[in-house]
Amino acid sequence: MAGMSRMILDTALALAFALPAGAQVFTVGEKTATADIDTSFRPTRVELPDGKLSERGRRELVRELEAEQGFAHRILPLGTTVTLQANGGLKPGGDDYRKLVYEKGSFANIGDRVAVTGLEFKPDRILVDLNGGPYAKHRFMRHIQIGIGPMDTSQHSNLNDGQTATGCRVTLVFEGGVPELSAPEVKSLLYPLVDFSVRSGPQAYAETLPEPVKQAIATHDVLVGMNRQMVLASLGAPESKVRETTEDGTKYEEWIYGHQPQTMRFVRFVGDRVALMKIAAMGKPMEIHDQDEMAAYQPPKAIKGGNVSGDVEEDAIKKGAPTLKRTGEVLPDAASVDGAQNGKVQFPTEKKDPATAPTTSAPQPQQFSPASR
Fold first, then answer.
1. What is the pLDDT of residue 340?
2. Ramachandran area for residue 14 (φ above 0: left; ψ -120 to 50: alpha; else beta)
3. What is the rounded CA–CA span in Å between residue 236 and residue 229?
4. Which residue from 132, 108, 92, 120 is spatially nearest to 195, judged by alpha carbons?
5. Structure confidence at residue 338 (pLDDT)
6. What region does 73 belong to: left with phi over 0, alpha with psi -120 to 50, or beta?
7. H or E element, residue 265
8. What pLDDT does residue 353 have?
9. CA-to-CA distance for 274 and 239, rounded, in angstroms?
């Protein structure tokens, strides 16, 4: 063991003396690592409503903000809390913000997608957790001791499960108390940190729908008669799916949202349409919707092969679709569309001068069937 240590020391000394004279050693410190972090800040100017936040307003904010996604406007520190004053400044700011990112690390760079994963309300502030918040997930197995004396958990990494903090918390502070805010107003106040205005695919799709359907999607409701794309835009992907067959042989697929003791929703599709929707809330009777709530609205069909459907193509032919016929030309078979008779294409015969034509009989028109090619 002593011989190996001596060998390592000799190697280090040899490398040190091998450095050329005047060689420089660069050390990466806090200023170097955080030099590119932009800490410029521009306060928002959102007109805040009067009155205190009601219980109904709080529930609306939870329903409309949780799971909302946006894009980071600045590098966001990992496992910590930053304080944002409504229409005011950010703490920490400037060099203190750079130091926080240097010490804690980051979980999102500028332009990365982040999501609201938790909301908590205090009299004068709203606590917004992004990407899981600043705290590691609690595991009670970490505190269990077996046998005599403390257990060495370093040898049992499976008890830790590698759970660490995955996000941060933004404390949105209001002078004089939290007012009766709407979800868009909260998003506007968080704009210096996260941009929620960028539309996702489902949101862009929802903008093309009629106002009642658009409003239902905005409030995360499901209407009987919606298609799968509308449900995905309203509630997102389900937690589980079940495929079954009714007693009369009708096949259906049921999407399940939520789990006990939370409110659960069972959305049943027959084909591509919601045929039944059941809402099970704790302490309330089952709420069942089985009547069409879309006012017979039919979304446009997908375009395939340049035509919406075969019926449209046939109608266009009957009404005079573009053709290669000359003006006034009559086809040999008036009932045919492209001049084909019995599935065979008629080739025109060559016209020759009778004086120079051979005495042999004229060649017969060639015929072939497309099926024989």
1. 47
2. alpha
3. 9
4. 108
5. 47
6. alpha
7. strand 264-270
8. 62
9. 17
Which stretch of DSSP H or E encloses residue 241? strand 240-245
Contacts 24+ apart (CB under 8 A), 343-346: 343/369, 343/370, 343/371, 344/368, 344/369, 345/370
pLDDT digits (tens, 9 = 90+) for 208-236: 788 888 888 888 899 999 999 899 988 88
Rounded-to-integer distance, Cα 224 and Cα 208, Å: 19
Contact 39, 88 (CB under 8 A): no
* Polymer length of the chain: 373
Structure tokens that stand for 288 in this block: 């069942």
Among residues 221, 231, 233, 234, the alpha carbon closest in space to that of 253 is found at 231
- DSSP symbol at 370: G
Q: How far is CA 14 from the centre of its chain?
A: 57
Q: Is 104 helix (H, G, I), strand (E, B) or coil?
A: helix
Tokens of 134: 């600043």
pTM beyond cutoff 0.85: no
Quickly list DSSP for 36-104: T-----------PPSSBPPHHHHHHHHHHHTT-EEEESS-EESS-EEEEETTS-EES-THHHHHHHHHH
Looking at per-residue pLDDT, the higher value among 183 and 139 belongs to: 183
Judge whether residue 110 has pLDDT over 60. Answer: yes
Q: Mean pLDDT throughout 236-244? A: 91
Mean pLDDT of the 134-153 span: 57
Sequence-distant (6+) residues with CB within 8 A of 55 are none
Q: Between β-strands 251-257 and 273-280, what pairing exists: parallel, antiparallel or unpaired?
A: unpaired
User: What would the two tokens of residue 231 be?
Assistant: 């449900």
- Quote the distance between the C-alpha of residue 178 and its chain's center: 30
Q: Report which of 72, 70, 83, 81 is spatially closest to residue 168, judged by C-alpha positions.
A: 81
- Tens of pLDDT, residue by residue over 283-308, are 889 999 999 988 777 765 544 444 44
Give the separation between CA 43 and CA 52, rounded to whole angstroms.
23
**Residue 128: helix, strand or coil by DSSP?**
strand
Spatial CA neighbour of 253 closest among 222, 274, 229: 274
